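Please fill in the sequence for the structure shown.

STRUCTURE ENCODING:
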Protein backbone atom coordinates (compact mmCIF):
# COMPACT_ATOMS: atom_id res chain seq x y z
CA UNK A 1 0.00 0.00 0.00
CA UNK A 2 1.28 3.49 -0.89
CA UNK A 3 2.09 5.88 1.94
CA UNK A 4 0.22 9.18 2.20
CA UNK A 5 3.37 10.84 0.88
CA UNK A 6 3.16 8.80 -2.33
CA UNK A 7 -0.54 9.30 -2.98
CA UNK A 8 -1.50 12.25 -5.19
CA UNK A 9 -4.94 13.82 -4.89
CA UNK A 10 -6.97 16.53 -6.62
CA UNK A 11 -7.96 19.33 -4.24
CA UNK A 12 -8.96 22.16 -6.59
CA UNK A 13 -10.62 22.57 -9.99
CA UNK A 14 -10.84 25.69 -12.15
CA UNK A 15 -12.37 25.60 -15.60
CA UNK A 16 -14.05 27.42 -18.42
CA UNK A 17 -15.88 25.47 -21.11
CA UNK A 18 -18.23 26.49 -23.93
CA UNK A 19 -21.14 25.51 -21.68
CA UNK A 20 -19.95 26.47 -18.21
CA UNK A 21 -17.44 28.50 -16.20
CA UNK A 22 -17.22 26.34 -13.08
CA UNK A 23 -17.59 22.68 -12.25
CA UNK A 24 -21.18 22.87 -11.01
CA UNK A 25 -22.41 24.77 -14.06
CA UNK A 26 -20.47 22.53 -16.44
CA UNK A 27 -21.72 19.34 -14.79
CA UNK A 28 -25.35 20.50 -14.70
CA UNK A 29 -25.25 21.33 -18.39
CA UNK A 30 -23.81 17.90 -19.17
CA UNK A 31 -26.61 16.22 -17.22
CA UNK A 32 -29.26 18.47 -18.79
CA UNK A 33 -27.89 18.02 -22.33
CA UNK A 34 -27.15 21.71 -22.89
CA UNK A 35 -24.75 22.34 -25.75
CA UNK A 36 -22.07 25.01 -25.87
CA UNK A 37 -21.71 25.06 -29.66
CA UNK A 38 -22.75 28.11 -31.69
CA UNK A 39 -22.00 29.82 -35.01
CA UNK A 40 -19.29 32.44 -35.33
CA UNK A 41 -17.70 34.39 -38.16
CA UNK A 42 -14.19 33.35 -39.13
CA UNK A 43 -11.85 35.53 -41.19
CA UNK A 44 -11.62 34.29 -44.80
CA UNK A 45 -14.13 31.50 -44.13
CA UNK A 46 -17.39 33.12 -43.06
CA UNK A 47 -19.72 31.24 -40.71
CA UNK A 48 -18.31 28.26 -38.83
CA UNK A 49 -19.39 26.16 -35.84
CA UNK A 50 -17.30 26.65 -32.72
CA UNK A 51 -17.30 26.16 -28.97
CA UNK A 52 -16.60 29.57 -27.45
CA UNK A 53 -16.14 30.37 -23.76
CA UNK A 54 -17.81 33.30 -22.04
CA UNK A 55 -15.79 33.83 -18.86
CA UNK A 56 -14.88 37.13 -17.21
CA UNK A 57 -11.30 37.91 -18.25
CA UNK A 58 -11.35 40.98 -16.00
CA UNK A 59 -11.87 38.88 -12.90
CA UNK A 60 -8.12 38.31 -12.59
CA UNK A 61 -6.59 40.62 -15.23
CA UNK A 62 -6.77 44.29 -16.08
CA UNK A 63 -7.26 45.59 -19.62
CA UNK A 64 -3.56 46.13 -20.22
CA UNK A 65 -2.67 42.56 -19.22
CA UNK A 66 -5.36 41.18 -21.49
CA UNK A 67 -4.28 43.38 -24.41
CA UNK A 68 -0.57 42.51 -24.09
CA UNK A 69 -1.03 38.80 -23.36
CA UNK A 70 -2.69 35.93 -25.19
CA UNK A 71 -6.12 34.36 -25.27
CA UNK A 72 -4.56 31.10 -24.06
CA UNK A 73 -2.93 33.03 -21.24
CA UNK A 74 -6.21 34.61 -20.17
CA UNK A 75 -7.90 31.21 -20.13
CA UNK A 76 -4.99 29.74 -18.14
CA UNK A 77 -4.97 32.63 -15.65
CA UNK A 78 -8.71 32.33 -15.06
CA UNK A 79 -8.55 28.56 -14.54
CA UNK A 80 -5.46 28.68 -12.31
CA UNK A 81 -6.91 31.31 -9.99
CA UNK A 82 -10.24 29.48 -9.81
CA UNK A 83 -8.45 26.20 -8.99
CA UNK A 84 -6.29 27.77 -6.30
CA UNK A 85 -9.31 29.49 -4.76
CA UNK A 86 -11.27 26.25 -4.89
CA UNK A 87 -8.43 24.51 -3.07
CA UNK A 88 -8.27 27.36 -0.51
CA UNK A 89 -4.61 27.99 -1.34
CA UNK A 90 -3.23 31.53 -1.16
CA UNK A 91 0.08 32.14 -2.93
CA UNK A 92 2.51 33.86 -0.56
CA UNK A 93 6.13 33.80 0.53
CA UNK A 94 5.60 30.58 2.45
CA UNK A 95 4.79 28.52 -0.65
CA UNK A 96 5.30 30.43 -3.90
CA UNK A 97 8.61 28.71 -4.76
CA UNK A 98 7.14 25.25 -4.08
CA UNK A 99 4.24 25.57 -6.52
CA UNK A 100 4.72 24.24 -10.04
CA UNK A 101 2.64 25.13 -13.11
CA UNK A 102 2.31 22.50 -15.86
CA UNK A 103 -0.04 23.42 -18.68
CA UNK A 104 -0.84 21.07 -21.55
CA UNK A 105 -1.52 22.77 -24.86
CA UNK A 106 -2.08 22.02 -28.51
CA UNK A 107 -0.81 25.39 -29.67
CA UNK A 108 -0.90 28.97 -28.50
CA UNK A 109 0.02 32.42 -29.77
CA UNK A 110 -1.51 31.61 -33.17
CA UNK A 111 -4.49 33.87 -32.53
CA UNK A 112 -2.30 36.89 -31.86
CA UNK A 113 0.17 36.04 -34.64
CA UNK A 114 -2.58 35.77 -37.26
CA UNK A 115 -4.01 39.08 -36.06
CA UNK A 116 -0.59 40.71 -36.22
CA UNK A 117 0.01 39.49 -39.79
CA UNK A 118 -3.42 40.69 -40.83
CA UNK A 119 -2.86 44.10 -39.22
CA UNK A 120 0.55 44.36 -40.87
CA UNK A 121 -1.09 43.81 -44.27
CA UNK A 122 -3.08 46.99 -43.69
CA UNK A 123 0.24 48.90 -43.50
CA UNK A 124 1.76 47.38 -46.66
CA UNK A 125 3.71 44.92 -44.49
CA UNK A 126 5.89 47.61 -42.93
CA UNK A 127 7.47 45.69 -40.03
CA UNK A 128 7.80 48.79 -37.87
CA UNK A 129 4.13 48.16 -37.07
CA UNK A 130 4.84 44.62 -35.86
CA UNK A 131 3.99 44.13 -32.19
CA UNK A 132 6.90 43.99 -29.75
CA UNK A 133 4.72 41.65 -27.69
CA UNK A 134 5.00 38.93 -30.35
CA UNK A 135 7.93 36.99 -28.85
CA UNK A 136 6.57 36.54 -25.31
CA UNK A 137 3.16 35.75 -26.75
CA UNK A 138 4.44 32.94 -28.93
CA UNK A 139 7.14 31.24 -26.82
CA UNK A 140 6.31 27.67 -25.89
CA UNK A 141 5.99 28.35 -22.14
CA UNK A 142 3.56 31.27 -22.55
CA UNK A 143 0.27 30.17 -20.88
CA UNK A 144 2.07 28.63 -17.91
CA UNK A 145 4.34 31.65 -17.65
CA UNK A 146 1.43 34.08 -17.78
CA UNK A 147 -0.03 32.24 -14.77
CA UNK A 148 3.16 32.73 -12.76
CA UNK A 149 3.37 36.45 -13.58
CA UNK A 150 -0.27 36.92 -12.64
CA UNK A 151 -0.18 34.93 -9.39
CA UNK A 152 3.38 35.49 -8.18
CA UNK A 153 4.24 31.78 -8.29
CA UNK A 154 8.03 31.38 -8.46
CA UNK A 155 8.29 27.59 -8.77
CA UNK A 156 8.86 25.83 -12.10
CA UNK A 157 6.53 26.47 -15.01
CA UNK A 158 6.33 25.08 -18.52
CA UNK A 159 3.90 23.86 -21.14
CA UNK A 160 3.51 20.29 -22.31
CA UNK A 161 2.95 20.14 -26.06
CA UNK A 162 0.98 16.94 -26.53
CA UNK A 163 -1.65 17.91 -29.11
CA UNK A 164 -5.09 16.70 -28.04
CA UNK A 165 -3.56 14.41 -25.41
CA UNK A 166 -2.18 17.46 -23.59
CA UNK A 167 -4.84 17.83 -20.89
CA UNK A 168 -4.03 14.41 -19.48
CA UNK A 169 -0.31 14.98 -20.06
CA UNK A 170 -0.35 18.17 -17.97
CA UNK A 171 -1.96 16.32 -15.06
CA UNK A 172 0.48 13.44 -15.38
CA UNK A 173 3.41 15.87 -15.33
CA UNK A 174 2.08 17.52 -12.20
CA UNK A 175 1.70 14.19 -10.42
CA UNK A 176 5.22 13.12 -11.38
CA UNK A 177 6.77 16.36 -10.13
CA UNK A 178 5.02 15.91 -6.79
CA UNK A 179 6.30 12.35 -6.51
CA UNK A 180 9.82 13.61 -7.26
CA UNK A 181 9.41 16.20 -4.49
CA UNK A 182 10.20 19.00 -6.92
CA UNK A 183 7.10 20.87 -5.71
CA UNK A 184 4.47 20.65 -2.98
CA UNK A 185 1.57 21.94 -5.09
CA UNK A 186 1.01 21.39 -8.80
CA UNK A 187 -1.33 23.53 -10.90
CA UNK A 188 -1.82 21.40 -13.98
CA UNK A 189 -4.16 20.45 -16.82
CA UNK A 190 -4.73 21.93 -20.26
CA UNK A 191 -5.86 25.00 -22.18
CA UNK A 192 -6.87 25.80 -25.77
CA UNK A 193 -7.41 29.01 -27.73
CA UNK A 194 -8.05 27.26 -31.06
CA UNK A 195 -11.27 28.96 -32.30
CA UNK A 196 -9.46 32.29 -32.49
CA UNK A 197 -7.32 31.16 -35.42
CA UNK A 198 -8.60 30.55 -38.95
CA UNK A 199 -5.62 28.28 -39.72
CA UNK A 200 -6.90 25.33 -37.74
CA UNK A 201 -10.38 25.68 -39.28
CA UNK A 202 -8.95 25.91 -42.79
CA UNK A 203 -6.71 22.90 -42.21
CA UNK A 204 -9.49 20.66 -40.89
CA UNK A 205 -11.70 21.90 -43.71
CA UNK A 206 -9.13 20.97 -46.36
CA UNK A 207 -8.77 17.60 -44.65
CA UNK A 208 -12.52 17.04 -44.92
CA UNK A 209 -12.75 16.80 -41.13
CA UNK A 210 -14.58 20.01 -40.19
CA UNK A 211 -18.10 19.34 -38.94
CA UNK A 212 -21.12 20.94 -40.56
CA UNK A 213 -24.83 20.89 -39.70
CA UNK A 214 -27.82 23.20 -40.11
CA UNK A 215 -28.06 23.35 -36.31
CA UNK A 216 -24.69 24.16 -34.66
CA UNK A 217 -25.73 22.38 -31.44
CA UNK A 218 -25.99 19.15 -33.44
CA UNK A 219 -22.74 19.50 -35.38
CA UNK A 220 -20.54 17.62 -32.91
CA UNK A 221 -21.83 14.04 -32.92
CA UNK A 222 -19.23 11.40 -31.96
CA UNK A 223 -20.34 7.80 -32.62
CA UNK A 224 -23.34 8.91 -34.70
CA UNK A 225 -23.81 7.43 -38.16
CA UNK A 226 -24.04 10.92 -39.68
CA UNK A 227 -21.00 12.47 -37.98
CA UNK A 228 -18.88 14.44 -40.41
CA UNK A 229 -16.05 15.98 -38.45
CA UNK A 230 -14.75 18.06 -35.58
CA UNK A 231 -16.21 21.18 -33.98
CA UNK A 232 -13.27 23.28 -32.83
CA UNK A 233 -13.55 24.71 -29.32
CA UNK A 234 -11.62 26.67 -26.77
CA UNK A 235 -11.50 26.18 -23.05
CA UNK A 236 -9.36 25.26 -20.12
CA UNK A 237 -9.28 23.15 -17.00
CA UNK A 238 -6.55 23.26 -14.38
CA UNK A 239 -6.38 21.15 -11.25
CA UNK A 240 -4.57 21.60 -7.97
CA UNK A 241 -2.70 18.41 -7.09
CA UNK A 242 -1.08 17.71 -3.74
CA UNK A 243 0.44 14.79 -1.88
CA UNK A 244 -2.22 13.22 0.29
CA UNK A 245 -0.46 13.93 3.58
CA UNK A 246 -0.29 17.64 2.76
CA UNK A 247 -3.96 17.71 1.77
CA UNK A 248 -5.00 15.94 4.97
CA UNK A 249 -2.81 18.19 7.10
CA UNK A 250 -4.67 21.28 5.96
CA UNK A 251 -8.12 19.66 5.84
CA UNK A 252 -8.55 20.06 2.08
CA UNK A 253 -11.54 18.80 0.14
CA UNK A 254 -10.42 15.85 -1.96
CA UNK A 255 -12.12 15.34 -5.33
CA UNK A 256 -10.21 12.23 -6.43
CA UNK A 257 -6.95 10.35 -6.23
CA UNK A 258 -4.59 9.74 -9.15
CA UNK A 259 -4.40 5.98 -9.61
CA UNK A 260 -2.44 5.40 -12.82
CA UNK A 261 -1.40 6.89 -16.12
CA UNK A 262 0.48 6.25 -19.33
CA UNK A 263 1.63 8.02 -22.48
CA UNK A 264 2.86 6.33 -25.65
CA UNK A 265 3.32 6.97 -29.38
CA UNK A 266 1.87 5.43 -32.54
CA UNK A 267 5.05 6.14 -34.54
CA UNK A 268 3.12 5.66 -37.78
CA UNK A 269 1.21 8.67 -39.08
CA UNK A 270 0.81 12.39 -38.34
CA UNK A 271 -2.98 12.24 -38.33
CA UNK A 272 -4.40 8.71 -38.53
CA UNK A 273 -4.81 6.97 -35.13
CA UNK A 274 -3.60 3.46 -34.32
CA UNK A 275 -5.99 1.40 -32.20
CA UNK A 276 -3.27 -1.11 -31.28
CA UNK A 277 -1.17 1.61 -29.65
CA UNK A 278 -4.26 2.94 -27.88
CA UNK A 279 -4.88 -0.50 -26.41
CA UNK A 280 -1.28 -0.68 -25.24
CA UNK A 281 -1.53 2.74 -23.60
CA UNK A 282 -4.60 1.68 -21.62
CA UNK A 283 -2.92 -1.58 -20.60
CA UNK A 284 0.12 0.32 -19.37
CA UNK A 285 -2.02 2.71 -17.30
CA UNK A 286 -3.99 -0.16 -15.78
CA UNK A 287 -0.77 -1.93 -14.84
CA UNK A 288 0.60 1.20 -13.16
CA UNK A 289 -2.66 1.52 -11.22
CA UNK A 290 -2.55 -2.15 -10.21
CA UNK A 291 -5.97 -2.62 -11.80
CA UNK A 292 -7.69 -4.67 -14.46
CA UNK A 293 -10.44 -3.44 -16.76
CA UNK A 294 -12.98 -5.03 -14.38
CA UNK A 295 -11.92 -2.44 -11.79
CA UNK A 296 -12.93 0.48 -14.04
CA UNK A 297 -16.47 1.82 -13.63
CA UNK A 298 -16.43 4.51 -16.34
CA UNK A 299 -14.44 5.13 -19.51
CA UNK A 300 -14.57 8.65 -20.92
CA UNK A 301 -13.81 8.24 -24.61
CA UNK A 302 -11.79 10.67 -26.71
CA UNK A 303 -13.98 10.33 -29.83
CA UNK A 304 -13.98 13.59 -31.81
CA UNK A 305 -16.66 12.99 -34.44
CA UNK A 306 -14.47 11.93 -37.36
CA UNK A 307 -15.41 8.78 -39.28
CA UNK A 308 -12.12 6.91 -38.94
CA UNK A 309 -11.04 8.25 -35.55
CA UNK A 310 -14.23 7.19 -33.76
CA UNK A 311 -14.26 3.77 -35.42
CA UNK A 312 -10.62 3.12 -34.54
CA UNK A 313 -11.15 4.10 -30.92
CA UNK A 314 -14.21 1.88 -30.62
CA UNK A 315 -12.18 -1.01 -32.01
CA UNK A 316 -9.60 -0.32 -29.32
CA UNK A 317 -12.22 -0.22 -26.57
CA UNK A 318 -13.73 -3.52 -27.75
CA UNK A 319 -10.27 -5.09 -27.48
CA UNK A 320 -9.73 -3.57 -24.03
CA UNK A 321 -13.00 -4.90 -22.58
CA UNK A 322 -13.02 -8.25 -24.41
CA UNK A 323 -13.63 -11.10 -22.00
CA UNK A 324 -14.17 -8.84 -19.00
CA UNK A 325 -16.54 -10.25 -16.40
CA UNK A 326 -17.66 -6.74 -15.48
CA UNK A 327 -17.97 -4.04 -18.12
CA UNK A 328 -17.45 -0.31 -17.56
CA UNK A 329 -19.89 2.36 -18.65
CA UNK A 330 -18.67 4.50 -21.54
CA UNK A 331 -19.49 8.13 -22.33
CA UNK A 332 -18.20 11.08 -24.34
CA UNK A 333 -18.17 14.85 -23.76
CA UNK A 334 -17.37 16.38 -27.16
CA UNK A 335 -20.98 16.27 -28.37
CA UNK A 336 -21.69 18.99 -25.78
CA UNK A 337 -18.66 21.26 -26.16
CA UNK A 338 -16.85 20.22 -29.34
CA UNK A 339 -13.15 19.43 -29.33
CA UNK A 340 -11.26 21.69 -26.93
CA UNK A 341 -7.95 20.31 -28.18
CA UNK A 342 -5.28 20.73 -25.46
CA UNK A 343 -7.97 21.27 -22.83
CA UNK A 344 -10.15 18.36 -23.92
CA UNK A 345 -8.88 15.61 -21.62
CA UNK A 346 -8.80 17.83 -18.53
CA UNK A 347 -12.31 19.20 -19.13
CA UNK A 348 -13.71 15.75 -19.82
CA UNK A 349 -12.20 14.37 -16.63
CA UNK A 350 -13.63 17.26 -14.60
CA UNK A 351 -17.12 16.76 -16.01
CA UNK A 352 -17.11 13.16 -14.81
CA UNK A 353 -15.55 13.60 -11.35
CA UNK A 354 -18.89 14.43 -9.65
CA UNK A 355 -19.97 10.88 -10.49
CA UNK A 356 -17.90 9.82 -7.49
CA UNK A 357 -20.49 11.57 -5.32
CA UNK A 358 -23.77 11.14 -7.20
CA UNK A 359 -23.15 7.91 -9.15
CA UNK A 360 -24.54 9.48 -12.34
CA UNK A 361 -22.89 8.93 -15.72
CA UNK A 362 -23.58 11.81 -18.08
CA UNK A 363 -24.58 10.70 -21.58
CA UNK A 364 -23.11 11.28 -24.99
CA UNK A 365 -24.91 13.93 -27.04
CA UNK A 366 -26.30 13.83 -30.59
CA UNK A 367 -26.10 10.05 -30.99
CA UNK A 368 -29.37 9.86 -32.90
CA UNK A 369 -28.38 6.91 -35.09
CA UNK A 370 -25.53 4.90 -33.59
CA UNK A 371 -22.97 3.88 -36.19
CA UNK A 372 -22.68 0.06 -36.19
CA UNK A 373 -18.89 0.49 -36.17
CA UNK A 374 -19.25 2.38 -32.89
CA UNK A 375 -21.50 -0.04 -31.04
CA UNK A 376 -20.16 -0.67 -27.56
CA UNK A 377 -21.72 -2.36 -24.53
CA UNK A 378 -22.73 0.10 -21.80
CA UNK A 379 -22.35 3.14 -24.07
CA UNK A 380 -24.55 5.81 -22.43
CA UNK A 381 -26.08 7.58 -25.41
CA UNK A 382 -29.35 9.26 -24.52
CA UNK A 383 -30.05 10.21 -20.89
CA UNK A 384 -27.97 10.40 -17.69
CA UNK A 385 -27.62 6.99 -16.10
CA UNK A 386 -27.96 6.49 -12.35
CA UNK A 387 -25.59 3.70 -11.37
CA UNK A 388 -24.99 1.86 -8.11
CA UNK A 389 -21.80 3.85 -7.78
CA UNK A 390 -18.75 5.13 -9.68
CA UNK A 391 -15.41 4.61 -7.97
CA UNK A 392 -12.94 4.64 -10.87
CA UNK A 393 -12.70 6.62 -14.11
CA UNK A 394 -10.42 5.93 -17.07
CA UNK A 395 -9.90 9.03 -19.21
CA UNK A 396 -8.60 8.57 -22.76
CA UNK A 397 -7.09 11.36 -24.89
CA UNK A 398 -5.31 10.90 -28.20
CA UNK A 399 -3.61 13.48 -30.42
CA UNK A 400 -1.96 14.28 -33.72
CA UNK A 401 1.55 13.09 -34.47
CA UNK A 402 0.45 9.84 -32.83
CA UNK A 403 0.47 10.65 -29.11
CA UNK A 404 -1.82 8.79 -26.71
CA UNK A 405 -2.52 9.51 -23.05
CA UNK A 406 -4.56 7.62 -20.48
CA UNK A 407 -5.28 8.79 -16.95
CA UNK A 408 -7.01 6.72 -14.25
CA UNK A 409 -8.47 8.37 -11.16
CA UNK A 410 -10.32 6.81 -8.26
CA UNK A 411 -12.62 7.92 -5.51
CA UNK A 412 -10.60 8.88 -2.45
CA UNK A 413 -10.72 6.32 0.34
CA UNK A 414 -9.05 7.07 3.65
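FILLED IN BY: designer on duty
SEQUENCE:
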Amino acid sequence: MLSANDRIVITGIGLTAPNGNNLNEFRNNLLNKISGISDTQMRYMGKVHAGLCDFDCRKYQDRREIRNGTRAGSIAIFCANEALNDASIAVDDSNRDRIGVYVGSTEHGNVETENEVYNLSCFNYDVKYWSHHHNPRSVANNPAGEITINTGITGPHYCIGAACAAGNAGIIQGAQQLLLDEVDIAVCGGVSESPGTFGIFASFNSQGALASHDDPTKASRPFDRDRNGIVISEGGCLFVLERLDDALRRGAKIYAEIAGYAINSDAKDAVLPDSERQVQCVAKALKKAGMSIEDIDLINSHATGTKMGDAQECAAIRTIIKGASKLPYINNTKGFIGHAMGAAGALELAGNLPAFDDGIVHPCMNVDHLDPECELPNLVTSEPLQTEGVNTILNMSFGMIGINSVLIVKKYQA
